[in-house]
Structures are given as structure tokens and as C-alpha cells.
Amino acid sequence: MGDNTELPPVEQHQRPLRNQDLSAVTDLVQEIFSQYGWYLLAATALFYLLIQYIVKKSQSVRRTHSSAPPTHQDVLLVAKRQEALEAARMRMQEELDAKAAIFKEKQKQQEEEKRRQKIELWDNMKEGKSCKGNTSQSTEDSSTTVIKRKTDKKPLRSSDYNPLSGDGGGACAWRPGRRGPSAGG
User: Fold this and answer.
1) Do 168 and 161 form a contact (C-beta atoms < 8 A)?
2) If pLDDT is split at 50, 70 and 90, which confidence band does 22 have?
3) Is the separation of the CB atoms in 124 and 134 below 8 Å?
4) Residue pair 40/33 in contact by the 8 Å Cβ criterion
5) How confident is the model at residue 184 (pLDDT cuts 50, 70, 90)?
6) Cα–chain-centroid distance for residue 171?
7) Where are the alpha helices (H) located in the chain, listed in sequence order?
8) What does R_g of the chain's alpha carbons equal in angstroms?
9) Closest of 111, 93, 112, 90 to residue 101, by C-alpha
10) CA 52 to CA 46: how far, in whole Å?
């Protein structure tokens, strides 16, 4: 290759770019988004959620593998908590036992009172006394007050009211409708 041979000069004129403003590319992108925009949005959201899920799982796996064995303080703390829990349970059980004992005592007293009343009633029956005549004064007072309350009430209607007579309703009397076909055009 000698110096004498020259290559033909390259034309320096450049042709202008055909799509210099990239309008065809923007038209294509707009068309894709208008046709598949919702699908792209849904796919992007699912991809984002998938990435978040994977990150969360990897962090939890790292925590389980990297967690140190329980220390001496942790063991003591757990033991103290269990002892406190057991003590609280014991206190609650003691309170429950005390309440149960009080309830049992009340039940025994009530049963004893009922038994005593039955014995008195039986003795009175043997002597020929009426079982109703032996009731205490307080029960008689309450029964008479109940009767008095009932007699003090006013009746809702007068005694001469008869719903079948038709004259007790005043202006609200019911009347049957007209017979015959309805009047209308």
C-alpha cells in the first residue's frame, strides 16, 4: 500500500435524521399504554408486592438463622416471669376457694333455715294449726298492699262500654266502602 494511492474522498454531506424529534417513538409508546396501560399497571403492582414479599421472607430467614442462643439473663427473665405467673394463679385460686367456702356456708345456713321452717310447719300441722295462719306478719302486709294497689287503679273504660254497639268510638267509627264499580275514567 503505497502513498500514491489515495482513497476517494468521502462525501461530507450528512443526510438529516428521519425521526429527529422522536415523534414516532412517542406515538408507539402512547399506543402501547393506551391499549395495555391497565395491564402494565397491574403487572407493576404485582411485581412490587412480590419484591416486598421476598424481602420480608429473606429478613425473617436471616433473623432465625442469625439469632443468638438465649443468654443467661433471658433464661432468668423467663424463670421470673413464670414464677410471677404461678404466684398470681395461686392468689386467684385462693380467692376463689375463699369465695366458694363463703358460698357453701351461706348454702348450709339457707338449708338449715328451710329445714327449721319445715319442722315448725310440721309441728303446727300436728297441733292442728293452719299452715297459712302461721306466716309471718311481713308477708301478710305485703300481700294486702298488693291487693290495695290493684283496687286503687282506675279502669281503662267505663263499665257500660261495648265494642259491638258501635257508639263507643266517637268520631272514629268504621264505615264500609261503597258498593259497585269504582268511579273512574
Assistant:
1) yes
2) confident
3) yes
4) yes
5) low
6) 51
7) 23-66, 72-127, 137-152
8) 51
9) 93
10) 10
Residue 157 in grid coordinates: 273504660
**What are the φ/ψ torsions at residue 82 (nearest 5 degrees)?**
-65, -40
For 107-128, give one letter per residue: b (16+ CB within 10 A) or e.
eeeeeeeeeeeeeeeeeeeeee
**Residue 93 is placed in which grid cell?**
385460686
The three cell numbers of residue 170 are 266517637
Grid cell, residue 24, equals 414516532
Q: How far is CA 67 from CA 45, 62, 70, 72, 79, in A?
A: 33, 8, 9, 15, 20
pLDDT for the residue 138? 47
131 CA to centre of own chain: 54
pTM confidence score = 0.32
The single residue listed with the C-alpha cell 315448725 is 120
Cα–Cα dist 153/77, whole Å: 72
CB 139 within 8 A of CB 145: no
Q: Name residue 53's amino acid.
A: Y
